[in-house]
Amino acid sequence: MIRLFIIFILIISPPCLADATTRPPEQTHWSFATPLGTFDRSAMQRGFQVYKEVCSACHELSHIRFRELSALGFNDKEIKAIAADYSIKDGPNDEGEMFDRPALPGDSFPNPFPNEQAARASNGGAFPVDLSLIIKGREDGANYVHSLLTGYGSAPTDITLFEGKSYNPYFEGGQISMPPPLVDGQVTYVDGTPATVDQMSKDVVTFLSWASAPELEARRQMGLKVILYLIVFSMLMYFVYRSVWRNVK
């Protein structure tokens, strides 16, 4: 019995310690979080700007193709211009060599590093995650990422930071290799929105939430149509039933 008790304690101890050192995400209202919610197009475009000017230096977005940016409200000409700012490794050519070319709308967003080793070497040994599915890949994803981006601060006196680490209570263990990525005024929004850390974080989370589920709105619209169809169909069948059996006692 004592052995079983010890095993039970060992099993439940890690979660307890994690709960004690990691702060749960702050809850934020998101336009897309409700069953019939939609993505704010303006926020998505601003969020893409944050990703392009800040996040893309370290993080890839491999599951998204440039042409899919039409969902953000960009037209074909704008998408071609956005893609042309990126370089894609292609080939081999007639001489058997690889070469760089401007990205095309059908290309996926390129990795900023040629391989994992180069990525780790440029980030103190840490490997920057692919942001394509970051919202789906984390529990309470949107709130978690927003809390993480805005949660940097000074470490408590009882915590000694390791070299190259920053304190963030929303990251497991409280120590994260990524330095604070956002600073007030870091980008200049085209629409004139003040670029505070909180605003940039909300915008890029909105964009990444769309990137994690580009089909979300279409799926919800289809679901609503199916529900309405079933309601109307059920009502019609009820009246047919009443009509067919009204003379039967």
Strand and helix layout:
Elements lengths: L1 H20 L19 H13 L22 H9 L2 E4 L8 E4 L13 H7 L11 H4 L3 H10 L15 E2 L7 E2 L20 H16 L3 H29 L5
Antiparallel strand pairs: 1-2, 3-4
Question: What report would you give on this structure?
Answer:
With about 250 residues, the protein is mainly alpha-helical. The protein has two domains: about 15-65 and about 110-215, Cytochrome c-like domain (Cytochrome Bc1 Complex, Chain D, domain 2, Orthogonal Bundle); about 215-249. Helix content is about 45%, strand content about 5%. It has eight helices and four strands; from the N terminus they run H-H-H-E-E-H-H-H-E-E-H-H. A two-stranded antiparallel sheet has the order 1-2. It has a two-stranded antiparallel sheet with strand order 3-4. Helix 2 packs across helix 7. It is globular, with a radius of gyration of 25 Å. Mean pLDDT is about 90; it is low at about 5-20.
Summarize the structure.
43% of the residues lie in helices and 5% in strands. By secondary structure, the chain is mainly alpha-helical.
